[in-house]
Automatic annotation (TrEMBL):
Transmembrane recorded as keyword: no
Subcellular location field: Cytoplasm
Superkingdom of this protein's organism: Bacteria
Keywords from the named record: Cytoplasm, DNA-binding, Transcription, Transcription regulation
InterPro entries documented for this protein: Integrase-like_N (IPR017856), TACO1_YebC-like_2nd/3rd_dom (IPR048300), TACO1_YebC_N (IPR049083), Transcrip_reg_TACO1-like (IPR002876), Transcrip_reg_TACO1-like_dom3 (IPR026564), Transcrip_reg_TACO1_YeeN (IPR026562), YebC-like (IPR029072)
Protein source organism: Paenibacillus albidus
Coiled coil: none
Main location: cytoplasm
UniProt family annotation: Belongs to the TACO1 family. YeeN subfamily.
Domain TACO1/YebC-like N-terminal intervals: 3-74
Protein name: Probable transcriptional regulatory protein GCM10010912_12860
MF GO annotations: DNA binding
One cellular component term from this protein's GO annotations in UniProt: cytosol
Length: 239
């Protein structure tokens, strides 16, 4: 599928290694998700997904507990979920998901990041139709055949199972996230290199070197924004 998820995770981890930015964003996401349902992950599947993702990013337990306690205490902060769509250099496509308590601030910041880095905003629906919501899991220490066998035994349907670098990556429908997770746990696998609900492009593009440098600056600028939770794109990540 051209994504090489372990490489992507390593790049993000390196980028965030010396900052608390990723932890702060997870704190907001956990709080919002817990407030929308129950602050108990066993009763709130969406929260369980977020906590599994947080685990793969090594978010400290103190950050998680603080967000959950805030939700249990009926914190009064209100956040809106927003999605922006746009284009990078050479027609590359980008989706930006945000959680914000100030819509005008976030819209202005996202628009500025696009315009200052060779991109431009699109209207709602101009990009998203080219992406598919997807559950992605990565595990180490097993072969693709072993993973496929355990998923078949658990009667779990997936789109694909591929060996990428040193891990096996499973691609599935979003509503199969918990089924895949439980299948792994039933086989004794509790640690994941990747556990994401993401948006995968139907087609990926390669860019000339100068355009790729500009594109990466744009992605960095978007990911640096306080209110931005996720950035999805269709740049081929084989390299």
């Amino acid at each position: 599928m051209g994504r090489k998820w372990n490489n992507i995770k390593e790049k993000k981890a390196s980028k965030d290694a010396n900052t608390s930015r990723v932890y702060a964003k997870f704190g907001v996401e956990i709080y919002v998700t817990a407030k929308k349902g129950e602050p108990d992950p066993e009763a709130n599947r969406a929260l369980k997904v977020v906590l599994e993702r947080a685990k793969t990013y090594n978010v400290p337990k103190a950050i998680i507990d603080r967000a959950l306690e805030k939700a249990k205490g009926n914190g009064e902060e209100s956040y809106e979920e927003l999605r922006y769509e746009g284009f990078g250099p050479s027609g590359s496509m980008i989706i930006v998901d945000a959680l914000t308590n100030n819509v005008n601030r976030t819209a202005s910041a996202v628009r500025s990041a696009f315009s200052k880095n060779g991109g431009n905003m699109g209207v709602s629906g101009s990009v998203a139709y080219m992406f598919e919501p997807t559950a992605v899991f990565g595990v180490e220490g097993k072969t693709a055949d072993e993973v496929m066998e355990l998923l078949i035994e658990a009667d779990v349907d997936v789109r694909d199972v591929l060996e990428e670098e040193e891990a096996v990556i499973v691609y599935a429908e979003p509503d199969q996230f918990h089924a895949v997770q439980e299948a792994f746990k039933g086989a004794g696998v509790t640690e994941f290199t990747v556990a994401e609900l993401t948006m995968l492009a139907q087609n990926y593009v390669t860019l000339p070197e100068d355009a790729q440098v500009q594109f990466e600056k744009l992605i960095d600028a978007l990911e640096d924004l306080e209110d931005v939770q996720q950035v999805y794109h269709n740049l081929d990540s084989e390299e």
